[in-house]
Fold these 4 entries.
Entry 1:
Amino acid sequence: MVRSEWGARWPRVADAGSGGGGGAAGGKAPARQAASSEEERRRRQQQQDDEARRLREEREAAELAHKQQASQAGVPTSIEGFQKHPLYVLKRHITKYQVRA
C-alpha cells in the first residue's frame, strides 16, 4: 500500500499541544483528557480484576464441592461403582489413551 493511500484511509490525529482552543485554556484540556483517560483505564482494570477474582472463587467453590462429593462417596464396593466413580478406577477400565496417576 502506498503511503498516500494509507493517509487517505487513516486521517492523522492532531497533536495534543496543537488543540483547537489555542492559548492557555487549550493546554489544560489535554491534561484533563489524560487524567480522565487514566481514571477510565484504572476503572476498567479494577472491573477486570474483580471479574477474575469472582471467577476464581466460583471455580474454587466448584472444585471443593466436587472433592467433598468424591470423599463422601468413599471406596466403591461394586464394579459398577468403580466405573462411575470420579476418583477410583480399576485397571481393566482404563483405555489405551488414558493414564493411571
Entry 2:
Amino acid sequence: MKTNGLKNTYYGQKITSFLLLKKIEIIEFLADDGIVSEVEGSSPLEYPNGQPNITYIAKFKSKKERDDLFNSMGNDPEWEKVWSKHPNPNAYVHSYGKFFKSIKKNN
C-alpha cells in the first residue's frame, strides 16, 4: 500500500511540536517516505489498513506521565489543532505503545 510520505512528514512535524509543547523529550520521529512496506518473516501480517505511517520514540518520566498526556488529549485545544491537520482525519488510527529501559551503561 503506497502512502503519501510528504503529508505524513508535515503531520508528523505537527505532532512533534505538540509533544514538545507538553515538554516531552523526543528521541526520534519518523514519517513514512512513501516506499511500499516490505512485510516478511515466518508469520508475516499485512494489516488491512496498511503499515504505520508515523513512528516516534519519546522519553517519558513514567508510564503514568504518558497515560495522563494521552488521556488529556481529547480535551486539549492544542491537540484539536494538530488533529485538524491530519491528511485524513477519518482514517483508521492505530496506536501501539511499548515501554523500554536503557541497557546502555553510563560511564
Entry 3:
Amino acid sequence: MTGLYKKYGGAKVQLISELKPQIRLRKKFLMYGIIGAFVTVIDVLVCMGSEVFSNAVIANTFGVVTGFIIQYFLTAKHVYNEKT
C-alpha cells in the first residue's frame, strides 16, 4: 500500500495515512451502519420465514421484535462497548 500517492502541487501525500485518522474518527458510526444493515437483512429473513406459518401482520411483528433484540445486543457490544 505504500505506492498509493496523490500529488498536491508536487508534494506527495500518502492516501492511506490520510484515511486512517478519518476511519478511526468514524469507526463507531460505520459499525452502527454495518450492524443496521445486518439487522435489516435478519428482519426481512425472519419475516419471510414466519409468513409460512402465520399471517403477514404476526410475521412482521415477529421479525421487527427479533431485529430490535439483535440490534440492541450488537450495538451495545460493538458500538457502545457495554456489557449487557
Entry 4:
Amino acid sequence: MLSYKLEPFLEQLEVVSAAASKEYSLEKAMDRMEEEWDSIVFNTTLYRDTGDLIQDPLQIVKYFQQFVCITPKTANSASERSERS
C-alpha cells in the first residue's frame, strides 16, 4: 500500500473493506440458506370448491411447531432473566 501511496485513503479503505466483508458474509449465509431450503417442498391443496390453492394445513402446523413455538420452560427462563436485569 505504501508503494501505491494509499496512506491518505487508509481510513476510507478500512470502511470499504469492513462493508465488503459484511456483504460477503451475508452472501455466504444466503447461499447456505438457499441450499438448506432447496430440498423443502411446500404442498398445496384445493380450498373447498373455490379452485384456490392453499398451503397444506398440516404442513403449516408442523412449521409452527418447529420454528415458532417455544416451550413453557424456555419462556419461563427468559422471563426470569429479564426480571433479574
